[in-house]
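Case study 2.
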Amino acid sequence: MAPTEPRSRRIRAAFLRRTDATTFTSNERRLLNLVRNEAPLSRAEIARKTDLAMQSVVRLVDGLLERGFLRTGEKMARGVGQPSLPILLAKDAAFTVGASVMQDAFSLVLMDLSGRALATAREAVDGADLKAVGARLHLAIDALVEQAGIDRDRLFGAGVATTGYFVDQVKLNTPAAMGQWALRDLEADLSDALELPVWIENDGNAAAVGESLFGVGRRCTSFAYLYVAAGLGGGLIMDGAPARGFHGNAGEFTGLLPVEMRPSRPNLGLLLELVRADGLAVSGIADLLARFDMNWPGVAAWLDRTQGPLAAIVSAISAILDPEAIVIGGRLPAALAAALADRACFYSAPVRDRERPFAKVIPAEAPGDAAALGAASIPLQEHFFG
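Prediction:
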């Protein structure tokens, strides 16, 4: 007897059948991406920008109009000739959700086909309990869908970002506090829990994607993203696209440090330790962030202690990758990210009194949770625009 097809694949296949989204040719993806980024466009403008024959453009556009992924707007006049019907993206043809799951909370964002965030949510949760997190995520997604007034059947899938490094395409080796998540097929587990197709991503990679779409990436096409949370991770955007590496672990910047220096890397676990040592009663990272004050003495101690490891990390990034920018983001407060960026320095070894150019170090700019934003965009990019 043949093995039953995994439920996660059946869920994805069911959506594709419902929406007639089973296949997109490379030219259809190219056209969708163009319209998403530059609409409104006439058919003639699409032909010029894609170098496709007008006959091919008409066929492609008509097919995507019929399937509901494009729509027409009101007639517009562009130069000499009869006004034409502009081609627009049908933003409500499909929706995704993105989740950033941490040890003590999760963030959610609901996104339409254009990449616009429609609704967000955040909940405290025991991230160690995989089954409980899955159940809470399902309820929170249903609440976001109801809040936005959309049909849940229009949800194409969910991107889920969490901490850890990949040991294969879908299995993460997570921190000890999230042992139930480690070394298992999380895409299948969470697809069953959420009743949606799921894409799993490392939180640093997802945050870099979110920053590229909604923050620094709107003016900077090559940057490294330092994701400061309970630990320290990150991601890379090179020439406008995420660079994940052979194993999917590009951006694991803690790995740039010798083992003895890693306890002093910039992360919120160390900050929690230092403010508690200074006598502040803080229950955990969530409480720390809710009550955060730059004037706490422990903050100055944290900035001093992390400056050396930060210099080692940004110097290595700049020397190896030569990005335009190094972006500091994650869960840390904006004021602390700015202070960390201001204190970042590079190893200097000038020749003829001239130093090679270094990347600029700047705080993140994406609104909300960049990891959740990036996670939500991954299903759209992979299926519709990739």
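The longest helix spans residues 297-321.
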